[in-house]
Amino acid sequence: MSPNNEIHSLKKLTAQYFQQLDLPHLSLPNAATIVRPDIQCVIYEHMFNEAALWPLPPVGYRTRVLKTIVSRIEEGITDPEEDELNSDLIETWTSLISLPKPSQIQQAQKLTYIKYTAPTTTTTAQDSQTVITSESRGLIYSSGTTGFRTWEASLHLGTYLSTSAGATHVTGKRVIELGAGTGFVSMYAAKYLRPQFVLATDREGTLIENMTDSKAKNGLGREFGVSAWEWGTPLGYPTEDDTEDIARERLCFDVALGADLTYDTDLLPLLFATLHDLFDNYGVQEFILSATLRNQKTFQAFLDACGMCSPQDS
Ligand SMILES: C[S@@+](CC[C@H](N)C(=O)[O-])C[C@H]1O[C@@H](n2cnc3c(N)ncnc32)[C@H](O)[C@@H]1O
């Protein structure tokens, strides 16, 4: 592998690790590569050095990943006189296994910061674009909302927006996201695509609190807002403290975004009523939806509803 490709594949592994991908999906270097001292050093510095990295994945996940890495390094040791495990990795391993670990269920229900990295190609030398969210992947069903994790549809929408064709929908625009969940798409747009303004909305108060916290963690300012909004009710933004002029300006958008909002046929009429409202009363010119095809019947209900709305109704 060329040095460029090696760097690219280590960057990919690091991005996957901070995104807390399941172990079987991690792209680990092969044994002959990972055993090299320079590669082990990069792995320590970019994945396990507690003094320099934040947010690190939870202890249980880190321990499982490091165990897999250490086994792979050991596979690569052909000359015990020459090849050895990096001392920082050994020290990290010793410290990790001595720490108490919550059960996988407890861990799955805790909030954890997750760092996502936008895709790059081997030829792009740009700095990584990252977004930090606050998630609890195990709270999905017990909490009564599905918004505590970032769903694949959001990742796909973020990936599309990271392309030059995608960015044109957001750059210089006023954007509103419906059912934003962790706020991943909105924060990516606000952080990297130079919009005028992005407003992330959801109906769940806890998600609003989490997004407000993530806003600070991503260093976002006035270009990004968070608001509670249940479809079918008045948009609770701007606040009562805003002057009338500011309020009018803030209630005007160019683009609406949504990811994974078509999973329940009961929600569709409300979603469509809300979209009509956005087009009719909030200046929205286009709606970009990213959907996961979990159930053909549900998705068909969505397509049918789209047919009913256009063009004679809109
Ligand atoms: C499957 S999650 C998708 C979250 C996020 N867009 C993603 O892709 O990661 C659906 C989101 O829609 C929100 N939601 C569902 N019904 C809603 C409603 N009537 N009004 C506002 N938000 C709603 C939920 O709270 C949840 O955050």
Question: What do these coordinates show?
Answer:
The chain contains 13 helices and 7 strands. It is of the alpha/beta class. Strand 6, helix 12 and strand 7 form a beta-alpha-beta unit. It starts with a helix and ends in a 5-residue tail after the last helix. Strands 5-4-3-6-7 form a 5-stranded parallel sheet, sandwiched between helices. Strands 1-2 form a two-stranded antiparallel sheet. The protein is elongated and about 75 Å long. The chain has helices at residues 3-18, 31-34, 37-48, 59-76, 87-98, 104-109, 152-161, 164-167, 184-192, 205-217, 244-250, 268-281, 296-309, and strands at 112-117, 130-135, 174-178, 197-202, 224-228, 255-259, 286-290. The protein folds into 2 domains: 3-101, no CATH class; 135-309, Vaccinia Virus protein VP39 (Rossmann fold, 3-Layer(aba) Sandwich), CATH 3.40.50. Helices cover 44% and strands 12% of the residues. The longest helix is centred in the first third of the chain and has 18 residues, at 59-76. S-adenosylmethionine is lined by residues 145-147, 150-151, 153-154, 179-182, 202-204, 207, 229-231, 259-261, 263, 267, 270. This is Putative methyltransferase-domain-containing protein.
